[in-house]
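Q: Convert this sequence to structure tokens.
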Amino acid sequence: MCYNIMYYRATGIPCTHSVNPPVRDQDLESIVHHVNPDIFVVNELGASPITANFLRDNVLNTNGISKYQAAAYTNNSFSDIVNMLYYDSNKFVLLEQNIVERDKNNFPLTRIIDFYRLYYKDPKLANGADTVFFTVAAAHLKAGSSSSDQSTRELAAEAIMDYIDNNISDDNIILCGDLNVYSSTEAAYRKFTNYTSNPSINLNDPLNGFGNWNNNSTYSLYHTQSTHASPGGCFSGGGMDDRFDHFLVSDAIISGSSKMNYYRYRIVGQDAGNGCCNSNFNFQNNSLVPSNIARSLYDFSDHLPITLEVEIQKSNIGISEYDMLNKLLKFNNPVDGNLKLSLSGFDRKNFKVNIIDLTGKSIFSTYWNTDIPLTVESKNWPAGIYLLNVTDNKSLSVTKKLIKR
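A:
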């Protein structure tokens, strides 16, 4: 589930909420517990670690629920609102997270982009089974319809795709958030779905909802903003007339080629058959959600939450731990200065590291407790190709090609 939660407990914002915070908390709690998401990505969370923890402890983990954990808090130091990811810790492990702070021209982004790498807690992991890794990117791009706003979004989109191209090893990728795009022909959207620098990483719109969504009743079922026809408090007016909130996914998720398969995409409560474009969100006679949930959706935010359902293939056989070690071992390659290795989320902790040149000579060897990342002084190595071998000196060994510049 992905949701723009409209300046949630934020300070320094250009508006005053017309609903007091405790009531908004109750509305959000009702919405989240109705959907019961395994992963919950938010935009417009108030920029404070305290707020992130408050939402986890007082909205998500309530009424006997204790499964949700939060990612680490991030911010670019000048935004009043941030992204956050919460996840069901019974089903997933958050392995690592990173951020993109600058656009393709190296200017600071309006808001940073968050990348979260997770894996599924397969029931047979303890027996050495393989599992499914995936990356979730949370984005909240620049708002506005001017040519400058569109250009800012395009540069941010290009930075996202460039980061995926150069840094993401997973085939399963989900980009979600308030992208603030008005049509599928807008440059930012085209960067996501038609990335000419590397077409193999193009993202897909699971709804195939291509067109001009803005103020167009043909796309009423796709609209996610605005729930209010008239502005007031922090609510923007205009009624339901824009598709700002999106899930975009990689080819592997569409095809199911990497054990994660697209199943269904929904806009929670979007009951356009009983409402119309440019009017209030239909909270009085909604056929898709209970009346109390419809009212909470109307009262809480000027966006509707969106959900993406995927199927994950569980392991049927125990595969050797080699596959997991191979995926979890991280190191900088090529190496320009020192070599840095990390290995998180793997049960075994004690390994031996060997660096071998192409003549078969070991030029470096040490024992490594993987609770702590390892830095190897390598700036004086001759440029060339080496072999990196990581082994537990028993049954497990991985060898990687290493390039020293």
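The longest strand covers residues 108-120.
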